[in-house]
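Please decode residue identities from the backbone states below.
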């Protein structure tokens, strides 16, 4: 309660500054006050809130505002102030009201808290990335990481995790991810020793992304299998982890686990993370096709995804029909899209599924058909299509894809009569898969339940304590509601 009073006093003092100060600069001062209160009270949720407020302000940042903010919260002439100021563009500051207001409020905001200093590194780094000053951003990111390594405070973990992300992001923009792999591994080891679980989640995802960027799937799987296991604390990081695991499982031909991971990542992702959900759905569609399943039409008609998923919709249609020629045309038509999505090698695997689907449709339509007609309907373009059709039919019969027999002497395929599907185990298998899905979703929902601290205690409380507890519960509920809307 005392910290809330102090925070309100700081905010009132900052609001008393001249009204000519831009609103963005005023918001930055409030964020600095919020971080200061969170650092003294050791309340990590306030640091989370400060980061969310910064993300909403990033498009409004200007050189003059960032420079004035650094002059306000950092001691002029200090190493951090000099270094961060040197990264900013050399522009003429025309907004003199900012400097005046800064000098007026300077005395009450000068402090040397590591949280505020690291926040300044984060703010400058975001500003440089948004203005495409990548060389300065890489230098600032390296400096920020060096500063984070020297601080071991749990209130810094939130800011450090964001710095890790932008440190990797700026190197990805400059195509130099391989240079920082060793640094990321050392940072992950440091986060593990410090029991920084948020940092471990973030760095693990960054390392997996680093490996997958260079198609090093075996190394990514070895890292994933060796890292310490713990319960996920950040929904966004957990969604990213599921997506990367789904990609690894897909390349390793473990399509069942890949489908579960990708669908779970798409379902758990925030609504605002449309680009991430599109990528999850693209990979999930390919995996389901490789499993022999046909995705529902509603998957491709989701709001804001229809245009992005159009190539995969046409691909699904070609696989469903079993038309090899149509499949080739779609693969050639959207080759650039599949290459940019890095699913081109998976599209090649689908050719066998297209042939099998077409063969299944033929076996259902004809009780007796020659291998020459089979080759013609499948549109096999090899030098000896009849021999290829015979080997394809034989393999499909052996794998159980079709229920037929092969007459080699006469060159015919004889289909057996279709029995009652309800006399087989297929309905039971489908029913069991649905039950398992519902039970898994229920278990995840139970794990995701959150309760206020000390909610199990039934002690009598005074009116003041009850008001304080209700206020904390309201803030906690607001924090949980805002968490899923955070920038992805």
């Amino acid at each position: 309660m005392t910290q809330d009073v102090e925070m309100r006093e700081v905010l009132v003092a900052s609001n008393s500054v001249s009204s000519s100060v831009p609103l963005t600069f005023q918001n930055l001062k409030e964020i600095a006050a919020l971080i200061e209160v969170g650092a003294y009270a050791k309340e990590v949720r306030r640091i989370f809130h400060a980061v969310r407020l910064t993300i909403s302000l990033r498009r409004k940042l200007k050189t003059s505002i960032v420079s004035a903010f650094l002059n306000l919260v950092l001691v002029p002439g200090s190493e951090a102030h000099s270094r961060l100021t040197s990264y900013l563009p050399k522009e003429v500051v025309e907004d003199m009201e900012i400097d005046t207001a800064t000098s007026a409020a300077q005395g009450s905001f000068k402090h040397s808290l590591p949280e505020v200093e690291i926040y300044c590194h984060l703010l400058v780094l975001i500003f440089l990335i948004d203005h495409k000053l990548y060389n300065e951003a890489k230098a600032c990111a390296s400096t920020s990481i060096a500063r984070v390594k020297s601080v071991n405070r749990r209130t810094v973990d939130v800011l450090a995790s964001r710095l890790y992300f932008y440190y990797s992001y700026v190197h990805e923009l400059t195509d130099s991810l391989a240079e920082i792999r060793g640094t990321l591994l050392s940072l992950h080891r440091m986060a593990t020793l410090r029991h920084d679980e948020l940092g471990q989640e973030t760095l693990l995802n960054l390392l997996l992304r680093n490996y997958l960027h260079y198609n090093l799937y075996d190394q990514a799987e070895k890292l994933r299998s060796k890292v310490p296991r713990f319960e996920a604390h950040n929904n966004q990081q957990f969604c990213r982890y599921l997506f990367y695991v789904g990609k690894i499982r897909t390349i390793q031909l473990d399509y069942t686990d890949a489908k579960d991971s990708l669908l779970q990542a798409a379902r758990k992702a925030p609504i605002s993370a449309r680009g991430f959900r599109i990528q999850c759905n693209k990979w999930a569609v390919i995996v389901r096709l490789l499993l022999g399943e046909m995705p529902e039409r509603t998957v491709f008609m989701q709001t804001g995804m229809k245009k992005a998923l159009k190539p995969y919709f046409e691909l699904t249609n070609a696989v469903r029909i079993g038309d090899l020629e149509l499949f080739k045309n779609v693969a050639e038509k959207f080759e650039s899209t599949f290459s940019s999505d890095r699913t081109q090698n998976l599209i090649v695997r689908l050719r066998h599924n297209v042939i099998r689907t077409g063969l299944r449709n033929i076996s259902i339509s004809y009780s007796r058909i020659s291998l020459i007609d089979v080759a013609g309907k499948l549109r096999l373009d090899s030098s000896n299509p009849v021999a290829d059709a015979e080997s394809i039919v034989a393999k499909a019969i052996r794998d159980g894809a079709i229920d037929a027999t092969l007459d080699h002497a006469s060159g015919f395929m004889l289909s057996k009569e279709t029995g009652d599907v309800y006399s087989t185990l297929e309905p039971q298998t489908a029913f069991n898969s649905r039950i398992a899905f519902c039970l898994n979703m229920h278990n995840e929902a139970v794990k995701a339940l959150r309760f206020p601290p000390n909610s199990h205690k039934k002690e009598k409380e005074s009116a003041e304590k009850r008001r304080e507890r209700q206020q904390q519960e309201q803030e906690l509920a607001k924090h949980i509601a805002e968490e899923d809307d955070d920038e992805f």
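Observation: The mean pLDDT is 80.
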